[in-house]
Amino acid sequence: MAEHGQDDEASAIICAATARLHQARKYQLPELLPLAQWFNAILDRPRQGRRVFERRHRSR
């Protein structure tokens, strides 16, 4: 949108989305899971699988 001269419209959409994300909630959000828990399946693999992951991560 910004590339086509619609900066104001793009800004309005961003502001509306930000306001919605930060509005007061009627309920508590669930507790976030630690990243270690999300990646347990990768990190708990045998050593060989871990080396493949580490090699890919370093190449970035």
Task: Describe the structure concisely for a colleague.
This protein is mainly α. Helices cover 58% and strands 0% of the residues.
What does this 3D model show about the protein?
It is a single chain. This protein has 60 residues and is mostly helical. Helix content is 58%, strand content 0%. The chain has four helices and no strands.
Tell me the overall shape: flat
Tell me the number of strands.
0
Low-pLDDT windows of residues:
none
Number of helices: 4
Structural class: mainly alpha
Proportion of helical residues: 55-70%
Q: What pattern of helices and strands is seen along the backbone?
A: HHHH
Q: What is the averaged pLDDT score? A: 80
Write the topology of this structure.
Layout: H1 7-21, H2 35-38, H3 40-43, H4 47-58
Kindly list the characteristics that best describe this protein.
4 helices; mainly alpha; 58% helix; 60 residues; single chain
